[in-house]
Amino acid sequence: MPETNGIHTNGNHMEWSNNKNGVASDEYDLNLPLKTLDPEMYELIVEEKDRQRKGLEMIASENFTTAAVMDCLGSCLHNKYSDGQPGNKYYGGAEVIDKIELLAQERARKAFNLQATEWAVNVQPYSGSPANFAVYTGLIGPHGRIMGLDLPDGGHLTHGFYTPKKKISATSIFFESMPYKVDPATGLIDYDELAKNSMLFRPQIIVAGISCYSRNLDYARFRQIADDCGALLMADMAHVAGLVAAGLVPSPFPYCDVVTSTVHKTLRGPRAGIIFCKKGFKCVDNKTGKDIHYDYEDRINMAVFPGLQGGPHNHAIAAIGVAMQQAALPAFRNTVWNTTFNHETSATRTYSKNRGFYSPSLDFGSRSSKCLRTQIGIVEK
């Protein structure tokens, strides 16, 4: 077992200090490795790793994260409480933690080509669902009205899902929601019906987001509908964030007031959520002639903490920073292109055998395959 300055490494990106030279004893020892301290749990983790390695993983919410991300998740950052925002923490000893959080924010903006003067970032949400709930809590409050794509049509639970008999998601219990739908004949979002219903329901937030919908979202159309009914526009790009970073699908940022995401799906980062919101100059008041600025940042930050969460998961925030740095690299972009090309090929062949896709076309798949065919020299006739 290699040792450097009293730190033992086991070759699986875990580390620990050990004052007893790795010798197990019957005493409770904080510094023993998992394999020695709890062989039963260790073997279960090994078993699960083997299952993942040998199986075909096709769950849209899953991905294989990197060794660098797992290094962060198993680090000493787990030990630190740091309630509050950088520079304004409740506990002392947060100087390094602040640097890590600010670096994660900076890298998140860079991954999506955003300016710090125009977009604020909160990297503290524990996952995507708490991130969405924090936005609703901070910007529209209890019983505020939201419209999101219905879950059976490809939306998400946290976009206000309920059934005729029961409110399922907390986002339909604490907020008032009305879904929009896809056209059953085409499998496409019915933007005309959304525009019509939004003028009747008058939502305060329209959510442009999906969890099972293979077409690009028309963010410009969403923006027009939101403006017409007086709503904010929020994008939940959790399932396509990696494709946005790679430039394979349209970006929601030019059109939206708020953008939320997870980091563990197509971004291949840790299990965590992230919130982007517009900041800075908004417009000029026609009556007073004074500048109006966006006020989303403080309201959302307060909703995350102390409104909904306690101490942030600093090990996950560091891993967000690592993932966002990787997402800005050409190598990440190439990986996403290849994965999307494989996905399109598989979907096309499956559809040709009449397996019954709800919406057979793949907007982003077509674009990525064209890019790849150009790169490898295939000429389309």
Short note summarizing the structure:
The chain is an alpha/beta fold. It contains 13 helices and 14 strands.
Output the keywords.
single chain; about 375 residues; alpha/beta; 7-stranded mixed β-sheet; 3-stranded antiparallel β-sheet; about 40% helix; about 15% strand; globular; disordered N terminus; disordered C terminus
Structure description:
The chain has 381 residues and is an alpha/beta fold. It is 39% helix and 13% strand. Strands 6-12-11-10-9-7-8 form a seven-stranded mixed sheet, with helices on both faces. Strands 1-2-3 form a three-stranded antiparallel sheet, with no helix packed on it. 38% of the residues are buried.
Number of strands: 14
Judged by helices, strands and strand pairing, the structural class is alpha/beta
The topology string of helices and strands comes to EEEHHHEEHEHEHEHEHEHEEEEHHHH
How would you state the average pLDDT, rounded? 88
| Overall geometric form | globular
- Assess the beta-strand content as a share of residues: 5-15%
Poorly predicted regions are 1-8, 13-19, 365-381
Major sheet: 7 strands, mixed
What is the CA-atom radius of gyration, in angstroms? 23 Å
Strand numbers in spatial order across the main sheet: 6-12-11-10-9-7-8
Number of helices: 13
Query: In angstroms, what separates the terminal alpha carbons?
Result: 58 Å
What share of residues is helical? 25-40%
Layout of helices and strands:
Layout: E1 3-4, E2 7-9, E3 15-17, H1 34-37, H2 39-54, H3 67-73, E4 84-85, E5 88-89, H4 95-111, E6 119-122, H5 128-139, E7 145-147, H6 170-173, E8 176-177, H7 191-201, E9 205-209, H8 219-229, E10 232-236, H9 241-245, E11 258-262, E12 273-278, E13 281-284, E14 291-293, H10 296-308, H11 314-327, H12 330-352, H13 363-375
Parallel strand pairs: 7-8, 7-9, 9-10, 10-11
Antiparallel strand pairs: 1-2, 2-3, 4-5, 6-12, 11-12, 13-14
Helix pairs in contact: 3-11, 4-11, 5-10, 7-8, 12-13
